[in-house]
Amino acid sequence: MSVPLSKKTIETVKATIPFLAENGVKLTEHFYQRLFTGNPEVKAFFNHANQESGAQQRALGGAICAFAQNIETPENLVTAVSNIGSKHASLGVKPEHYPIVGEHLLGSIDDLLNPAPPEVLEAWGEAYGFLADLLISAEKDLYDEQISQEGGWNGFREMEIFRREHESKWITSFYLKPKDAGTLPKFKPGQYITVRIPTPDGSTTMRNYSLSGSPDWDFYRISVKREVPRNSDTPEGYASSYLHTQLALGDSIELGPPCGDFFLQEHQQSTPILLLSGGVGITPLLSMFHAVTANPTTFLHGATNGENHALKEEVTQRAEEHSHLSAHFRYSAPSKEDERDQNHHSSGRFTEEFLSEFITPETEIYFCGPKAMMIQIYQFLKRTNHPTAQIHYEFFGPQEELEA
Predict the structure, then answer these.
(1) Is pLDDT above 90 for 269?
(2) H or E element: which one contains 112?
(3) Is 88 within 8 Å of 134 (Cβ atoms)?
(4) Virtual CA dihedral for 230, 233, 238, 241, nearest 10 degrees?
(5) pLDDT value at residue 347
(6) CA distance 82 to 284
(7) How do the domains of the chain map onto residue ranges?
(8) CB-based contact 262:191 (threshold 8 Å)
(9) 301 bridge partner residues
(10) What's the rounded Cα separation, in Å, for the pair 192 and 222?
């Protein structure tokens, strides 16, 4: 249980909000540089590509600013704490890591304010300790839940790749079963696992991938997009490239247990569900599509064209076998072959006019895909006053980017 923050601490932290709003990314860039220099052993917890693109710095900057803005109302942080806790639990973050982060966060504030007034460092030290206690408690609950499940585990477990399937131009599915021949815990449809792979310098790196199969299967499946450089300044995705080029049938890979707060909720049987995906965002929503038992559910998937459309046959087959399920494929740039073979149902993007045909005030909406698509859908739903409790999404970035 976290000790309540003092009034002085709350007032001091709130006074730093203008500084954080203006310098949040600068602060987090300095923080990561300081952290990795002082404690290089923690690099394995971070995505190198997201560091290179600045996405991680922007996300952390937004999270720090949001924490300061809600410091008087910590109940507003419940969702954020849950999301961060799930991410940390998927990577194996432990209580002993928090003092390391705290040291470099306070050191970065001190460096940028050159120096920071003692009362600012004292207040942020207390505030960080409060947040760390919340996260440590949330993560303990998750670790306990993981290990208590049938077939459950903490940390990483060795899996064998017993099947590989080429799903589209860039996406390959990997079918995984435990090397120890034990059982696997059931996951919530929409959750992800963590893959830990070796790096050239002898350490490891970790990545999260959504589980794309049914929770009822006795094996796990991930469907991974190989991240190729968009231009000469963009590095190839190390982890996705490793999976695609270095791993063959029978090879082993280390897996963390299922995690994540984006999953199919329980709804009354008459409640309509809309699953919206773009590109590789199909993976968590396909898992949900497998799990829906009675609700009238429509799966809308957007792809550039048929060459880039993964797992089409699986979605189509499931929709054809169950009267309460339907699917619609929309291509933004269909090829002549797509037009000839009728590989899709419509052409264009997910415009407001198009989406409106599938949404009623009662619809529960789940969506995941490229950032631009996510922003467009989210802002459309907010403008049309769709109930917030009926909007569910997986977004990798600061919340502010969705609402801008």
Answers:
(1) yes
(2) helix 98-113
(3) no
(4) 30
(5) 96
(6) 19
(7) 7-148, 157-255, 273-403
(8) yes
(9) 277, 329
(10) 9
For 285, residues 6+ apart whose C-beta sits below 8 A from its C-beta are: 190, 275, 276, 277, 299, 301, 366, 367, 368
Which one of 3.50.50.60, 3.30.530.20, 3.40.50.80, 3.60.20.40 gives the CATH number of domain 273-403? 3.40.50.80
The string of pLDDT tens digits covering residues 345-396 is 999 999 999 999 999 999 999 999 999 999 999 999 999 999 999 999 988 6
Question: What angle is formed at CA 17 by the lines to CA 80 and CA 120, rounded to 5 degrees?
Answer: 105
Three-state DSSP class for residue 182:
coil
Task: Indicate yes or no: pTM above 0.90.
Answer: yes
DSSP state of 323: T
pLDDT tens-digit series, residues 172-223: 999 999 999 999 999 999 999 999 999 988 889 999 999 999 999 999 999 9
Decide: 234 and 147 in contact? Cβ < 8 Å.
no
Mean of pLDDT over the chain: 93
Facing residues of 223 across strands?
Answer: 173
Token readout for 146 is 């993981």
Q: Which helix (H) or strand (E) holds 173?
A: strand 171-178
List, by residue number, the catalytic residues.
98, 139
pLDDT at residue 403 greater than cutoff 90: no
Out of 1.10.490.10, 3.30.428.10, 3.40.50.360, 1.10.10.10, the CATH code matching 7-148 is 1.10.490.10
3-state secondary structure of 394: coil
